[in-house]
């Protein structure tokens, strides 16, 4: 079943960190997780919401409000994607559907996947994996590459820092890897939370059953911090610093030593 409308909170043209080549990244609003380090807190709630915007002019600050998220039809999203087709062809790029969690609006997503397929556009889907396996099975043949997040292997820690169990996420990742889907694992390096020795070893063990696994290491950053205040949300990561380049390289070296194909950055 197809759905013609969904809630999108951003469309980025000329993105270079969301899959191969130059891409158009379409951000779906709504996420079932609540990761403490999320730098897109405006993506969590599915409905459009108001964010405060501050404009500094001379010595005064003017506050305005703007709405994040808008309803778009499949055809409106396709119009945005089609503007960039020439760049896809020249760079080996395509479209990336990201979020939030794209599968929160699964029927809308599947309609868009089908449209992109018709136009032979390369498709990446960036997912938390927190989706029914039945839905994932329907979508998988339409997707060229999954960008799949692994955060924490300990289920209690996953519940504590991300708000949900990791059981479904890991089961779906197994399904994709066993069915031969092209998957890039994305691992957010959050100092003191995800980069513990125990977590790194458990991730390596989980993935060691599969060959040619690609892992992208994504460094925690504070870019989204101000959005929490402007959305009236609490920020829990105040004391956490961005990992150093040396620390990122240590983690890259660890996974490389286990025969994974590792890249620092998306
Ligand atoms: S899964 Fe991504 S979008 Fe959802 S809360 Fe976590 S970091 Fe934010």
List keywords for this structure.
27% strand, 11 strands, single chain, two-stranded antiparallel ribbon, 266 residues, binds iron/sulfur cluster, alpha/beta
Description:
Its cofactor is [4Fe-4S] cluster. It comes from Denitrovibrio acetiphilus (strain DSM 12809 / NBRC 114555 / N2460). This protein has 266 residues and is α/β, with parallel strands linked by helices. It has nine helices and eleven strands. It has a nine-stranded mixed beta sheet. It has a two-stranded antiparallel ribbon with strand order 3-4. The protein binds iron/sulfur cluster (SF4).
Bound small-molecule species:
iron/sulfur cluster
Strand order of the largest sheet: 5-1-2-6-7-8-9-10-11
Query: What is the percentage of strand-forming residues?
Result: 25-35%
Please outline the major beta sheet: 9 strands, mixed
The level of helicity is 25-40%
Please name the CATH topology. Answer: TIM Barrel
CATH class annotation: Alpha Beta
GO molecular function, one term: metal ion binding
Pfam families: Radical_SAM
Cofactor: [4Fe-4S] cluster
Family: Belongs to the organic radical-activating enzymes family.
Indicate the topology.
Blueprint lengths: L4 E11 L7 E6 L20 E9 L2 E9 L1 E4 H9 L2 H7 L2 E5 L7 H13 L4 E5 L5 H7 L5 E5 L5 H8 L4 H12 L4 E7 L7 H11 L6 E6 L5 H7 L13 H13 L3 E4 L2
Parallel strand pairs: 2-6, 6-7, 7-8, 8-9, 9-10, 10-11
Antiparallel strand pairs: 1-2, 1-5, 3-4
The chain binds iron/sulfur cluster.
The site of iron/sulfur cluster has 12 residues, from loops.
């Amino acid at each position: 079943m197809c759905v013609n409308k969904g809630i999108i909170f951003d469309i980025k043209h000329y993105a270079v960190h969301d899959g191969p080549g130059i891409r158009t990244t379409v951000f779906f609003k709504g996420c079932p997780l609540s990761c403490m380090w999320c730098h897109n807190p405006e993506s969590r709630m599915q409905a459009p919401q108001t964010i405060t915007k501050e404009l500094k002019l001379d010595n005064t600050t003017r506050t305005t409000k703007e709405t994040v998220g808008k309803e778009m039809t499949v055809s409106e999203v396709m119009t945005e994607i089609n503007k960039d087709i020439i760049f896809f062809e020249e760079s080996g790029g395509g479209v990336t559907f990201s979020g939030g969690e794209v599968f929160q609006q699964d029927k809308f997503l599947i309609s868009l996947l089908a449209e992109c397929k018709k136009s032979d556009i390369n498709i990446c889907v960036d997912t938390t994996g927190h989706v029914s396996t039945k839905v994932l099975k329907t979508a998988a043949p339409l997707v060229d590459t999954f960008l799949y997040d692994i955060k924490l292997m300990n289920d209690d820690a996953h519940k504590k820092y991300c708000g949900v169990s990791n059981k479904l996420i890991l089961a779906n990742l197994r399904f994709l890897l066993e069915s031969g889907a092209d998957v890039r694992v994305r691992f957010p390096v959050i100092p003191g939370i995800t980069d513990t020795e125990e977590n790194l070893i458990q991730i390596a063990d989980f993935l060691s059953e599969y060959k040619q696994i690609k892992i992208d290491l994504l460094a925690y950053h504070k870019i989204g911090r101000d959005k929490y205040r402007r959305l009236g949300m609490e920020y829990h990561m105040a004391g956490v610093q961005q990992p150093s380049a040396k620390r990122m390289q240590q983690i890259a070296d660890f996974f490389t030593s286990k025969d994974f194909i590792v890249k620092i950055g998306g």
